[in-house]
Automatic annotation (TrEMBL):
Pfam families on file: MFS_1
UniProt-recorded name of the protein: Drug resistance transporter, EmrB/QacA subfamily
Chief location bin: membrane
Keywords: Cell membrane, Membrane, Transmembrane, Transmembrane helix, Transport
Keyword Manganese attributed: no
Domain of life according to the entry: Bacteria
Native organism taxonomy: Bacteria, Pseudomonadati, Pseudomonadota, Betaproteobacteria, Burkholderiales
Disulfide bond among keywords: no
Cellular component GO terms, alphabetical: plasma membrane
Residue ranges crossing the lipid bilayer per the database entry: 20-43, 55-75, 87-109, 115-133, 145-167, 173-194, 206-225, 237-254, 274-295, 307-327, 339-358, 412-431, 443-464
Residue ranges of every copy of the Major facilitator superfamily (MFS) profile domain listed in the record: 21-469
Membrane topology qualifier: Multi-pass membrane protein
Length: 480
């Protein structure tokens, strides 16, 4: 036997392959998350290119997010039917090609169409990529892998707006999309080379009724949340869409429970840790997703900063996110999921509430400390929730669990932005003025409302056992 064929050498190659898959999926997630927020600061320049008002281009953001919400539910079926490698590689190709098309468009209609196609590619990348990681990772290494692939969801919404502003200011908005081309080509080559070609031998039929019901429910709820946050949207129209979305959601749940081959497998909800991560964890994602939306607005509209200053200050949250990655595993091993989610969840809510105390006269150092602390707590909570989701899910249920998690994650992050807008609308109403005039006091109320939502997220955690997920976190409960 040659040295290259020893068990140690084979184990080393397997570890290297797994690490490369994790890194590849994290990079794909980063592209997908970044493209949901990066164009926000480029809207004025894009509007001039298309000859429309900047407000009209909001459809470029919403069409992308809505497409994700509609098509993520079928990703699990596609991965089982055609294989993880085939679907993930095809998704990267579609996303990359659509990105180039977005950069080449010269009108609002064709740009929106390209964004919809891009959203279809992104919808396949997220859950299928996570499934590739889950299948290539052992339970005892799950914490590290999930920690790596969750950082794009934390980082992209924070650095997206300032990065988009930098590219738009010193080049053209089109390069926001063209930059995905080299990244996408490298990702396609690596995915085809290193992700396993195995596929599910049981080819279940496509659940078209479930797909339609889930798509209607997701679209109606997301659109209703967006309407509720608009200053000029009528309440009746928004509530009508919300009621329709909830009714469609109830019908979808009933269908998915009865269907022998549901488009989304709900059986993972029988696993306690998964149910808690999806319940309280979804509320947590809603609250933290509102922060990157509110902070730049408060710094610019409330404190009078310019876009560049606002972007630099917001990056302090990103610094906190990265710093916590260095100690996440030891913290989880020392205290376990339940304690971390309870204590750190309360700290995360308090850090959001502390933002309500910031004013234009607050020293930058103190503002930076609050933002850095928020970045630390949100990073730890995000990783803990995402790892707990799959800690006890059996391998046969991983596909359905990954699809469920991705669907809820995408919807709750979109709802977080809507929550921020709704909180600002409620704050303006409480202060007795219209939403077109914004005051610093409005942001104080908005951050407090968002913090309450974040605090509500921890109540679901009380139902966990003290040593829940210990085989993943490495936590060992002390015996007396």
């Amino acid at each position: 036997m040659s040295m290259s064929d020893t068990p140690t050498a084979r184990s080393g190659r397997a570890d290297s392959r797994q690490s490369l898959i994790v890194t590849l999926v994290a990079a794909a997630f980063f592209m997908e998350n970044l493209d949901g927020t990066i164009i926000a600061t480029a809207l004025p320049q894009m509007a001039r290119s298309f000859g429309v008002h900047a407000v009209d281009l909001s459809i470029g953001i919403t069409s992308y997010l809505l497409t994700l919400a509609v098509f993520i539910p079928i990703s699990g079926w596609a991965a089982d039917r055609f294989g993880v490698r085939n679907v993930f590689t095809a998704a990267l190709a579609v996303f990359t090609a659509a990105s180039v098309a977005c950069g080449m468009t010269n009108g609002l209609v064709e740009f929106t169409a390209a964004r919809i196609v891009q959203g279809i590619g992104g919808a396949m990348m997220v859950p299928v990529g996570r499934l590739a990681v889950l299948r290539a990772t052992s339970k005892d290494d799950l914490m590290r892998a999930i920690s790596i692939i969750t950082w794009p969801g934390l980082v992209a919404p924070v650095i997206g707006p300032p990065l988009g502003g930098f590219i738009t200011t010193y080049s053209s908005w089109r390069w926001i999309f063209f930059l995905n081309l080299p990244l996408g080509i490298v990702g396609i080559v690596l995915a085809w080379r290193f992700i396993g070609a195995a596929r599910d031998t049981q080819k279940r039929p496509f659940d078209s009724a479930g797909f339609v019901l889930c798509g209607i429910a997701g679209t109606a709820v997301m659109y209703a949340m967006e309407l509720l946050g608009r200053s000029d949207a009528p309440w009746r129209e928004a509530l009508a869409f919300l009621a329709g979305g909830l009714a469609s959601g109830a019908a979808a749940l009933l269908h998915l429970r009865r269907s022998p081959h549901p488009v989304v497998d709900l059986s993972a909800f029988r696993v306690k840790t998964f149910a808690v991560a999806m319940g309280g964890g979804s509320l947590f994602r809603v609250s933290i997703s509102a922060v990157p939306f509110l902070l730049p607005l408060m710094f610019q509209l409330g404190f009078g900063m310019n876009a560049f200053q606002s972007g630099l200050l917001t990056l302090v949250v990103f610094a906190g996110n990265l710093s916590m990655k260095l100690v996440t595993t030891p913290v989880m091993r020392r205290f376990g999921f339940r304690t971390v989610l309870l204590v750190n969840g309360a700290l995360a809510a308090l850090s959001i509430a502390a933002m309500s105390l910031l004013t234009a006269s607050t020293p930058l150092v103190l503002t930076g400390i609050v933002l850095f602390a928020s970045g630390l707590s949100r990073s730890l909570q995000f990783t803990a929730v995402n790892t707990l989701s799959f800690a006890d899910v059996p391998k046969p249920q991983m596909s359905g669990a990954s699809t469920l998690s991705s669907t809820l994650s995408q919807m709750t992050m979109g709802m977080g932005v809507a929550l921020g807008a709704i909180a600002m609308r409620l704050a303006a109403w409480l202060h007795g003025h219209g939403t077109r005039s914004v005051t610093t006091a409005d942001f104080s109320v908005a951050f407090l409302l968002v913090a309450v939502v974040g605090l509500l997220a921890i109540f679901d955690v009380f139902g966990l056992e003290r040593d829940a997920g210990a085989h993943v976190s490495g936590y060992r409960r002390k015996r007396t």
